[in-house]
Design goal:
- The protein starts with 11 loop residues before the first helix and ends in a 6-residue tail after the last strand.
- The protein has a six-stranded mixed β-sheet. A four-stranded antiparallel β-sheet has the order 4-17-7-15.
- With 309 residues, the protein is α+β, with helices and mostly antiparallel strands.
- The protein is globular and about 50 Å long.
- The longest helix has 15 residues, at 245-259.
- Helices cover 27% and strands 23% of the residues.
- The chain has one domain (12-303): Clavaminate synthase-like (Double-stranded beta-helix).
- Mean pLDDT is 91; it is low at 1-15.
- Strand 12 (220-222) and strand 13 (228-230) form a beta hairpin.
- Helix 6 (175-185) crosses helix 7 (187-193) and helix 7 (187-193) packs across helix 8 (245-259).
Length: 309
């Protein structure tokens, strides 16, 4: 195919060096880093979008959610559906934001959307051993870190139907900010955490044998469109880190970054009608308490696409 007049060809090496996530692209990284830090939100209010019905966004509402995800990889919406338990709310919202391919697995419902609740674990006993379906705190992670590469979870949507009596707050941190903090301290941390075998999830077994094979993979990777992806869990069980000095130093540095709030760490609690739509950013969850008439329920939808127009 002929090139358009005035457009020169770039070699693969030149294209690579235009990515801020290439450790050799110091100029591209410096420019991207400055813009990122200049525009990154420092308060939860900075990523909040007030909307009407998430099933039918207005053009203004949709553009605002998309713009926030382009800038900060996340948006928190405040809708007017309240305690409406309609599972079409997250599905229809996601479809308007380019999120279509749901990640279905053995713990999701038949529609691939998971009701995250203690009550659900009581009904489906196989969920009880998994922390999201309890009232216990969940440490820092990105979703789907145990998935195979072809099932990488790039988009995440959480919709709140009912909040807890107390607790259940989330901390949120854009994974691109975590990348910057680590790279600024020592680029070797990024190099180690980008290794294809740096973090391995052991196989999951059931009564029939191996239900899921072990899954090695990187913490940081760059997809075919040049976007940074992060795969991480702070869990200390059912996870194996590469046993070398570089990996252990990088892992410890990442744990330090997450141990105390950064200027860009956002904190808040989803209330009925609210939700988070994001490019699978780092997040955690505080423990919570319930009462018989107020039991926490969130819908979780995981997607293979990023939030996009």
């Amino acid at each position: 195919m002929a090139r358009a007049p005035g457009v020169s060809a770039l070699s693969s090496a030149e294209i690579k060096l235009t990515s801020p996530f290439d450790l050799g692209a110091t100029s591209a990284y410096a420019e991207w880093r400055q813009l990122k830090l200049d525009t990154a939100p420092r308060r939860l209010e900075d990523v909040v979008v007030e909307i009407g019905d998430p099933r039918r966004l207005t053009f203004v509402e949709r553009d605002r959610v998309l713009a926030l995800n382009a800038k900060a990889n996340m948006a928190v919406y405040v809708g007017k559906t309240g305690r409406d338990p309609d599972k079409e709310i997250p599905r229809q919202l996601g479809a308007q934001l380019g999120l279509r391919t749901l990640d279905s697995h053995w713990l999701t419902d038949g529609d691939a959307i998971s009701p995250i609740s203690v009550r659900g674990a009581e009904v489906r006993g196989e969920r009880r051993e998994f922390i999201p379906y309890t009232n216990k705190p969940i440490r820092w992670h990105t979703d789907g870190y145990y998935n195979t590469p072809e099932r990488t979870v790039r988009g995440l949507l959480l919709h709140c139907v009912e909040s807890a009596v107390t607790g259940g707050e989330n901390q949120l941190l854009d994974h691109e900010i975590a990348y910057i903090l680590l790279r600024d301290e020592n680029p070797d941390f990024i190099r180690a955490l980008s290794a294809a075998d740096v973090m391995t999830i052991p196989p999951r077994k059931d009564e029939r044998g191996i239900a899921r094979a072990q899954q090695p993979g990187p913490v940081f990777s760059v997809d075919a469109n040049g976007f940074l992806h992060m795969r991480y869990t702070a869990r200390t069980v059912s996870i194996a880190w590469k046993d070398d000095a570089a990996t252990q130093a990088a892992k410890a540095a990442l744990e330090r970054v997450l141990a105390a709030p950064t200027p860009w760490t956002l904190r808040g609690r989803l209330e009925p009608g609210m939700g988070l739509v994001c490019n699978n950013v780092l997040h955690d969850r505080a423990g919570f308490t319930e009462s018989p008439d107020k039991r926490r329920l969130l819908y979780r939808a995981r997607y293979y696409e990023r939030v996009s127009g």
